[in-house]
Every structure is written in structure tokens, then in C-alpha cells.
Give the backbone structure.
Amino acid sequence: MNSVPAINPAQAAGQRLRERIFRGSTLAAALLVLLLLGGVAVSLAVGSWPAFAHFKFAFLTREIWNPVTDEYGALAPVFGTLVTSFLALLLAIPVSLGIAIFLTELAPAWLKRPVGTAIELLAAVPSIIFGIWGLFVLAPILQRHVQPWLIDVLGPVPFIGKLFQGPPFGIGVLTASFVLAIMVIPFISAVMRDVFETVPDVLKESGYGLGATTWEVIWQVVVPYSRTGMIGGIMLGLGRALGETMAVTFVIGNAHRINSSLLAPGTTISASIANEFTEAVGDMYTSSLIALGALLFLITFTVIAAARLMLMRLDRRALSSV
Amino acid sequence: MSRRALRTFYNLLALSLSGLATAIGLFFLAAILWTLIKNGIGGMSLRVFTEMTPPPGSAGGLLNAIYGSVVMTLIGILIGGPVGMLAGTYLAEYGRTSRLATVIRFVNDVLLSAPSIIIGLFVYELLVIRMGHFSAIAGAVALAIIAIPVTVRTTEDMLYLVPQGLKDASTAMGAYPWRTITSVIYPAARSGIVTGLLLAIARISGETAPLLFTALNNQFWSSNLGAPMANLPVVIFQFALSPYPNWQQLAWSGALLITLSILVLSVAARVVVSSLAQGGKR
């Protein structure tokens, strides 16, 4: 005869206790994630306080960066960070869009997987590798073949010409932007591809049913439908570009100057920190570098948060590749 | 040209350009790999794995750097992996759609894309200043902080793949959630979680920026976690920018080594994921 064994009160209590412990430890780990972001913010605020207190608002508006006289201003690195990231996006967006279109609408099924994976692998390559490749392979090519052409052809043009003055150094703002563009292409195209895949087939079929060409369906149905997600993806790429360190450090030339020419060496926030932090002597120097880090944190946090909010409505599973 | 011909022409043009864009993307991957193989393979010898980083001008290898990278990556994943798994478990099984879980999910996504050099600064303030010197353990903690958001994300995603019926069956037997999670859900999601850990390892093993001012570098063999430790990324950084040919050669060999390991890890992880996804559909 079968009988249901009576519940042992002691055992049940033990189970409840274990449940509490397990649930508590998962909650603690989850809260640690919050704490990490908070900790980063607080430590940057504390570390940068001496610099902000000393230089006040001028820290943001001055170009000077002089360890000898102990005077620091963030304008040049902030400028360099924004310019390189902007240029990188300019180069990366069309290519990423093309890749996303190719992968979702054009590629035959057997080609989708390998090509998609290869593009994703580009994102897995460590940034220091992009750095040495940029310095030893890309920069010489740009110096010999691309930059002289830019100087000769675009240099004399009014307005735009200002961007292409001076000798072809190879390294500099333009080269850094180029490397950054290659680095963010896989991120932007992965998001765009995932977003395009969420477009209901019925919508596309309606377009084809009206006699639209593939391109017309993409441009007038798929792209408008995915606009928010596409912008989210672009901003995610922007977040990457803004904070990218090693690749830029190799190729930007590390000059704390603002130059109207894109061919001139410059610096970015992250490159300045990477180059100078371990050599920084003096509290004000260190604190100024941490203040740069705090600015970078503020800028990237805003951009990434906006991107994530835009992407939040999409199925998270669809975006697992980023 | 007739309107129809024009539309066809635009269609063809746009589609060819998108094909070209894909070719550009693939070209850069190939170009980078080709450069690494061309410059790195020549310096690949047993020496790289058996000798210490040399002074300029003399022969040597990368043993201490390889050892340091492996040690710090392992400690990083040993700290970051469990924390990330537990947090991911909270999001997928306990918090779900609660407001707290939504906020944590959002913050985790932000951390996932946060610049790694910022994490380096954080750990510098947190550990290096307090200890008074650079150390391997600080480097490992920085890597752990980078591994956590990756693991949280993959664990959560993988736990969602476990069929609801399996969880319900366990709950119907009277099991508490912890029992269901540890005895039913974890085993069912095991290969997915392992994949997440592999991806996290791939992510942190190439990180340079957060190690620059935490673990620093060390020209000599050191297994002391409280002291600066050599590691591949920082050695590559230092050697590649040096004027010495033997250092540059080692930098290329190190770069080839680290990239190949990361690509192999990434491909392996993807193979597991795709076989999982197919199993789930069936």
C-alpha cells in the first residue's frame, strides 16, 4: 500500500533556510552589479575632486596640458575623443548598414552563418591587435597613398581644405578614426542585423506585393520600421568608439593639441590616460587624469544609457550577439 | 531611361554596394589575421613558451607573460564567473520583471559596454592606492569586473532557454526554487552557461587597458599575486612600441598567440550555442 510520507517539520525548515540562503546570495550578486556602477562613479568623483576643485570650470575649456607647470585642461582630449568617434561613425555607418542588409536580405542561407560569424569575430579581436595593425600596416599605407592625395586634391578646396593640411604623418586623428571605424562596424552591423530580423515578414511581403524592388522594400519598409533600433545600435557603436583605448593610443600620436587638420596628431581621453597615468607624478597630474576619466565616464554613460533604452523594447534574445 | 529601368538600376546598385560593404568587413578581418600570421609565425618557436621576456637585444620568450595572463584571467573568471552566474540567476528566476530586476538588467547592459580603461581607474583607486603598489590581484579584480556583466547576460539568456515544463515539473514535486534551480535548471542549461564563461574568458584575456595601471608589468618571473605581474597584452603594448627588433618580433608572436586563442574560444562558444539553439527548436 502506498502512502504519502508525512512532511518532516525539521526537514521543511531546513529547505526553507536553504531557499533563503540561495535566494539571498543571488540577490546579493545582482546588487553587486549595481554597486559596481555606483562604485565606479564614486571613485571617479573622489579621485577627480582635487583637479575640479583647483581648476574649476576652466578644466573643461582650456587646451593647456603642462605637467611642468602643473596646469591641465581637458579641451584637447575631449575634442579628440568626440572628433575621432564622430568620424569613425561617419565611416562605419554606411558599411554596417550594407553588411546588415546583405546578411538579412541578400545572402543565401548557406552564406549567412559563416559571413555573420566572421563579422562577429572581428569584434572579438582584442583592441591592442587593432592598435599594432593600425600602426604598422594601416598608417604607412595611409601615409604613402591616401594622405598625399587628400592633401593635393582636397587641401586647396575652401573650408574642407582646412581639414587636410600639413605633412602626411601616417598616424593622427584620421588614422585613429579609421581604425575605430573598423572596430565598431561589427557592433553596429550586428545590432542592425538583429533589428532588421524583427521586421514582420508580412510587412515586407506587402511591399513586394505592390511591386517594390528589394531595395525599395529595404529603404521604405525595413529601415523606417527599425529606425529606433538602428539609432540604438549606432549609439552603442558610438559608446565603444568613445571609450576605445589601446587601438587609439597606438595611432593617434598623443599630442595635447587641437589642430584643424585631421592629418595632425592629436589625443583622446582614453589615450591620454593610458599613456600618462603610470608616469604621472604629483597629485594634481594624477587627479587631472582621473578627471578626464570622469568626463569619459559621463559621456559614455549618457550615450550607452540612451542606446540601451532605445534597444530595450526589442527582444533581448535577438540582441544576444552584443 | 524608363522609370522601371531606373528602379531596377537603383536596386542593383544598392544591393551591390551592400555586398561590397560586406566584402570590406571581411577584408579587414582577413588583413589583420594575415598581418599577424606573416609577422608572428617567424618568431614562433619553443623558446616563446619556455623563456622569460628578454632585455633588449638578447633572445628570450614570453613564458612569464603567458603565465601571468593565464593566472590573472583564471582568477578573474573564478571571481567574476560565480558572481555573474548568481546575478544572472536572480534576474532570470527570482527578479524577472520586477522593477529592481529591470534596473539591474539595465545597469548590467551599461557596464557591458563601459570603457574598460574606466574599470582600470576604478580598481586603481580601490586596490592599488590602498595596497600602495601595483599587483597581480588588482589586475585579476579588474578583469573580474569586466567578466561579470558578460556572464550575467549569457547566464540569464541561457536560463530562459530551459523549457518551462521542466521547471513546473520540479515545482510540482514540491521542490523549493533553489532545488529546482540547482538540480534541474542548471544541469539543463549547463553547456549554455559554460559557453557564457568561455565568451567571458575570451573577452578578458585580450584586455590591455585595465591592466596598465593595476597589474602593470614585470620583466621577470613572478608568481606573487601581491606584486606586479607580466601579462601578454601589456608586454605586446610595450614591446611593439619599442625600437628593438627582438622585442617587436616577440610582440608579433604574442599578438598572434593571443588572437588565435581568442578566436578559437569564440568559435568554440558559437558552435555550442548554435547546437543548443537547434536542440531547443526541435
